[in-house]
Amino acid sequence: GTDVQSSLYEKYESEVRSYCRLIPHELTKATNAYVHTSAGIRYIDFFSGCGALNYGHNDPDMRNALVEYISGDGIAHSLDFHSESKGAFIKEFADKILLPRGLDYKIQFTGPTGTNAVEAALKLARKATGRVNVVAFTNSFHGVSLGSLAATANQHHRGVSGIALSGVSRAPYADYFGREVDTLPWLEQMLSDPSSGIDPPAAIIVETVQGEGGLNCASAEWLRRLRALATRHGALLIVDDVQAGCGRTGSFFSFEFAEIVPDIVVLAKSLSGFGIPLAAVLLRPELDVWQAAEHNGTFRGNNHAFVTARLAIAKFWSDSSFSASVEAKSRAVGAVLDSLQHRTGRLRKGRGLMQGLRCQKAESAAEIQRRCLEAGLLLERSGPHDEVLKLMPPLTIEDEVLEEGLSRFSEVALSVRD
Ligand code: PMP
Question: What is the whole-number distance in angstroms between the Cα of residue 99 and the centre of ligand 1?
Answer without folding.
Answer: 26
